[in-house]
Amino acid sequence: MRAYKFSINTITCLLCLTVAPGLLAAPNTFVQRHTFSVMDVQGGKDNATYAEDQSIICGMADSMYSVCPDGATQQVTDNEGITLYPIESNFGYVVSDFVGAAPRTFDEDYAEGFAGNITDDTYGDGVAIANVETNFFKTRDGYGTWCSGVGGSSVKCSSEHYVVMEHVLSCNVSVPYSTTEIQRDLLDPATGQIVDNCVNNKLSDVLKIVRNFEVTEEVLTSMVPGEQMDANESTVQHDIAVGKDYSITLKDDGKPLYRWGNLIKRPNDVRLYAKMALPQLWKDNPEIGYPVSSATLTITHSITNNPNDQIRPEDMENEAATGRLPSYLAIGSNWQSVRDCYEGDGDFIPAGTLYKNASFGQSDAFSSDLISGMTNAWYTSIDRDPFEAVESVVGPRWRLKANKYGQDVPSLEIANASSECTTPPFDKDDQKYSTGDYTTTTIDLLDFKGASPLSTSRGWVDASQNSINLGADGSPDATNGVSINGLPLTPDFDLAVYVKGDKKAVKIFNAELVINWDDLQ
Question: For residue 259, what is the enclosing H or E element?
Answer without folding.
Answer: strand 256-259
